[in-house]
Amino acid sequence: MKYAVIQAGADHLDILVTLFDAYRVFYGKNSDMISAREFLSDRIANEDSVLFVAIDDQQCDGLGFAQLFPSFSSVGMKRVWILNDLFVVDVARRSGVGRKLVDAVSEFAISTGACRIDLATSKDNLAAKTLYEAIGYGVDTQFDHYKLPIS
């Protein structure tokens, strides 16, 4: 399988929407292509996130995507990137696409002078956990993380 991983923009929106909707369905949400398009269009237009996409060289199909959101470390006084979303379609899993997406994210974080990349995944997502740990991500046991649902 030949593919390229590139930083995505508005011209990749159709591919991203399909992947993003499939990602949300993977996590138990109902398909909603219209809202997915609106959400991603806003992120791109407002430069709220950075997106990477893996595209099949032959058929120009999307194989996977990663989405980063910016944050900062007050203690480190540097940028932190939150790897909020990583998804690979079923037919491309275990082919290196996820690894290449994470590599692109890491290269981007280094190029922006970030001090780290943070991510979270569900406790039962063993494939993702295996990938992250193989790359060198570790589980943070120093801090407890809390959430306050607003809506």
Number of domains: 1
Major pleated sheet: 5 strands, mixed
Counting DSSP H or I runs of 4 or more residues, the number of helices is 4
Structural class: alpha+beta
Topology order in helix (H) and strand (E) letters: EHHEEEHEH
CATH class type: Alpha Beta
Task: Tell me the β content.
Answer: 25-35%
How large, in whole angstroms, is the Cα Rg? 15 Å
CATH architectural grouping? 3-Layer(aba) Sandwich
Mean of pLDDT: 94
CATH domain topology: Aminopeptidase
Distance between the termini: 42 Å
Across the major sheet, the strand order is 1-2-3-4-5
Beta strand count: 5
Shape: globular
Helical proportion, percent range: 25-40%
What is the CATH homology-level superfamily?
Gcn5-related N-acetyltransferase (GNAT)
In the predicted model, the low-confidence regions spanning at least 5 consecutive residues are: none
Structure description:
This protein is of the alpha+beta class. It is 34% helix and 26% strand. The chain has one domain (3-135): Gcn5-related N-acetyltransferase (GNAT) (Aminopeptidase, 3-Layer(aba) Sandwich). It has helices at 13-26, 33-45, 97-111, 126-135; strands at residues 3-8, 50-56, 62-73, 78-88, 116-119.
Main features:
single chain, 151 residues, alpha+beta, Aminopeptidase, 5 strands
Care to give the gist of this entry?
This protein has 151 residues and is α+β, with helices and mostly antiparallel strands.
Chart the SSEs and their pairings.
Blueprint: E1 3-8, H1 13-26, H2 33-45, E2 50-56, E3 62-73, E4 78-88, H3 97-111, E5 116-119, H4 126-135
Parallel strand pairs: 4-5
Antiparallel strand pairs: 1-2, 2-3, 3-4
Helix pairs in contact: 1-2
